[in-house]
UniProtKB/TrEMBL annotation:
EC main group: lyase
Primary gene name: fabZ
Protein name: 3-hydroxyacyl-[acyl-carrier-protein] dehydratase FabZ
Gene3D superfamilies: Hotdog Thioesterase (3.10.129.10)
Catalytic activity: a (3R)-hydroxyacyl-[ACP] = a (2E)-enoyl-[ACP] + H2O
Main subcellular location of this protein, as a coarse class: cytoplasm
Natural source organism: Oxalobacter vibrioformis
């Protein structure tokens, strides 16, 4: 089965789409996606994450920039899946902009961050999304993100 035919993607599928690797791969699973509309993915936040050693030892919380990065990676997966493409060896997904970011609750070890990205527009390889990250049904962060695909892609 081709990736484009799957609605649920595991981490091995995600690695075929994104160039990120540990410790920067921040999407564990895609729960569902609909081409041209939206995607839902998860990040299982564990106490073993290296950043918790310093952020903060007395009260560990996931850094906001990494939460935004996880949302951007979710959006990038969506862009590739919607385009029916996979990365070529020289392709990169760039995080282009972030607007209207609002942090509403901390993300802590043991949380499952549910990430949603809804397409606002796609023009000439620039993809803009409304994103939301939530934990236990509570919104943790909202932001608009834009990503750009540069380099070669191959059709699936």
């Amino acid at each position: 089965m081709d990736l484009k035919d799957k609605k649920v993607l595991n981490v091995n599928d995600i690695r075929k789409i994104l160039p990120h690797r540990y410790p920067m791969l921040l999407v564990d699973k895609v729960l569902d996606w609909e081409a041209g509309k939206k995607i839902t993915a998860i990040k299982n936040v564990t106490a073993n994450e290296e950043f918790f050693n310093g952020h903060f030892p007395h009260y560990p919380v996931m850094p906001g920039v990494l939460i935004i990065e996880a949302l951007a990676q979710t959006a990038a997966i969506f862009a590739f899946m919607s385009a029916g493409a996979i990365l070529g060896d020289d392709a990169t997904v760039y995080f282009a902009t972030i607007d209207n970011a609002r942090f509403k609750r901390p993300v802590e070890p043991g949380d499952q961050l549910v990430m949603e990205a809804e397409l606002i527009r796609n023009m000439r390889g620039m993809w803009k999304f409304k994103t939301v990250g939530s934990v236990d049904g509570q919104v943790a962060v909202e932001a608009e993100v834009m990503c750009a695909i540069r380099g070669s892609t191959e059709k699936q």
